[in-house]
Amino acid sequence: MKTIKVMTVFGTRPEAIKMAPLVHELERTDGVESIVCVTAQHRQMLDQVMDIFHLKADYDLDIMQPRQTLATITTKSLVGLDEVLDEAKPDIVLVHGDTSTTFAGALAAFYHKIPVGHVEAGLRTFDKYSPFPEEMNRKLTGQIAELHFAPTERNRKNLAAEGITKGVIVCGNTVVDAIHSTVNPDFVFRDDTLNQLDYENRRVILVTAHRRENYGEAMEHIMRALRRLADDFEDIDIVYPVHLSPYVRETAAKYLSGHERIHLIEPLAVDEMHNLMGRSYMVMTDSGGLQEEAPSLGKPVLVLRRETERPEAIEAGTVRLAGVEEDTIYSMACTLLRDENEYHQMAHAVNPYGDGHTSRRIVHMIRHYFGQLPDLPDEFRP
């Protein structure tokens, strides 16, 4: 049996979290050689995830630079990957989701005529500028890829609408695999602020807000809504790990600093984020990944965006789209804080993103593609 050389390419914290369980599944699979290449589009945050999940890069492009732009990220990744692919000669390149690293990885593999597998394929908002540049990154990657690992049936249908029907399986999301390995009831936070919170008697709201499309008036609306909630509900604590973006930090400080029950802390490592999520009452976020992670832990999510490429969670009832208007955000959060039935309806809804076995399904599909396994299980068929 010929060994399949599988190269995973990623460069950001969210990619690394979602690729980690897949890398481990590849490493323990007979007949597969796992090769890891990181661009380090996000250096510090990527390294934290690599350490926590015990990942080792075979190739590290180390592209991050001060005030990097989308163009510098893409071009430096493309040039660096050109050399790596020449040397490593993988049989297939796996990329994840929608970052600039994702698109550059797919394009570099295409230039070398190496098949591409797209993990978390088929997500769409149908607005090429929101999220920006992610929507176009994932669409362009979808046009290049040979294998498409769609988390949900809706994602498969999105691909089919674009004429992509071959090499597609519905397999869940690898983030569910990841979160099952990190949450521990005895976990001790490295940030002692989090150890001091009274999770039993107070309601902790986890907040993240950092997306480019929310910069400006939308971000100010979000911050004002959070401040009102902290003022009006004495039994809540708001924990906001503030993104490293200078704009986000300045805006958060302007509207939220100085309140005794709003905790502006440094970005959290993935194990801390998952365990804080597990102890929180609910999540308010403009992140994509948290919309998938929090429902795995039974936590309602209010999405601080105008749209989401994850409508399955809204349909399942685990997520609600709060938008970016102050009054709407405040009102929807108040509902979950005041109405127990509304809260429990969201908290006990079924997570649409899988059962924790996505990585196994992806590896099975890769082995089938290269002829190691003759048949696909019935669950892979649309």
TrEMBL record:
Name of a matching Pfam family: Epimerase_2
Enzyme class per UniProt: isomerase
Stored InterPro entries: UDP_GlcNAc_Epimerase_2_dom (IPR003331), WecB-like (IPR029767)
Assigned protein family: Belongs to the UDP-N-acetylglucosamine 2-epimerase family.
Species assigned in the record: Butyricicoccus intestinisimiae
PANTHER family xrefs: UDP-N-ACETYLGLUCOSAMINE 2-EPIMERASE (PTHR43174:SF2)
Keywords annotated in UniProt: Isomerase
The UniProt record lists the keyword Thylakoid: no
Gene Ontology MF terms in the entry: UDP-N-acetylglucosamine 2-epimerase activity
Domain UDP-N-acetylglucosamine 2-epimerase stretches: 25-366
Superkingdom classification of source: Bacteria
EC number, UniProt record: 5.1.3.14
Keyword Isomerase included in the entry's annotation: yes
Protein name in the entry: UDP-N-acetylglucosamine 2-epimerase (non-hydrolyzing)
